[in-house]
Amino acid sequence: MNDKLKFWFGLLLAGACYHAGNANAAGINDQAETELPQLLVGGENLTDYFQVFLSLGVVVAVILACAWALKRFTRIGVGSGNLRVVGGLSVGPRERVVLVQAGDTQMLIGVAQGCVSRIHTFDQPIAPVAPEVVETSFMDQLNQCLKKAKVARHA
Predict the structure, then answer these.
(1) What is the rounded CA–CA span in Å between residue 102 and residue 120?
(2) Which residues have CB under 8 Å from 25's CB, separation 6+?
(3) Domain locations in the chain?
């Protein structure tokens, strides 16, 4: 077994043990009257420690997932010196179109798994387009969305 499979199998087994312990503590599973050995250390038993370590593991997993997501989805504007990524667009599950600036030259590059190719080189840099800022209240926007949804349902 590889390490990832061992990890997920252990996590699944730990969750099942935790659920079974809760079922016994709540009186749900009365026919299995076997109790875990009470290892008293400072007035606490083994299930309390297991619950604390399981909760800690969940918190660490959430932190690692957030770090992975930040690394995965915030690649725009990355660069140093004269080379930087100006913008990008995902065109498939593993394909991206990226606008890269090298000095005064901008290049449109296609990036796929195992393949990077230049699509176009711009003579003049493309000016970044600022998004239109429309000053409307939340209520106006909500009413517009509801009207569009109502029209779509009746069409």
Answers:
(1) 13
(2) 47
(3) 3-73, 79-122
Residues 6 or more apart whose Cβ sits within 8 Å of residue 90: 96
pLDDT digits (tens, 9 = 90+) for 52-94: 899 999 999 999 999 888 887 776 555 566 788 888 888 988 8
Report the distance separating Cα 91 and Cα 69, nearest Å.
Answer: 19
For tokens 């179109």, the residue is 97
**Burial, 99: exposed, middle or buried (Cβ in 10 Å; 0-12, 13-18, 19+)?**
buried
Average pLDDT of the chain to the nearest whole number: 76
Alpha-carbon distance 106 to 84, whole Å? 10
92: helix, coil or strand? coil
Q: Reduced to 3 DSSP states, what percent helix, strand and coil does the chain have, rounded to the nearest 5?
A: 45, 25, 35
pTM of the model: 0.37
- Match 């079974």 to its residue by tokens: 20
Pairing of strands 83-90, 79-80: antiparallel
Quick check: helix, strand or coil at residue 65? helix
So what's the pLDDT on residue 56? Answer: 94
Query: Which residue, among 107, 105, 89, 87, has the nearest Cα to 97 in the 3D structure?
Result: 89
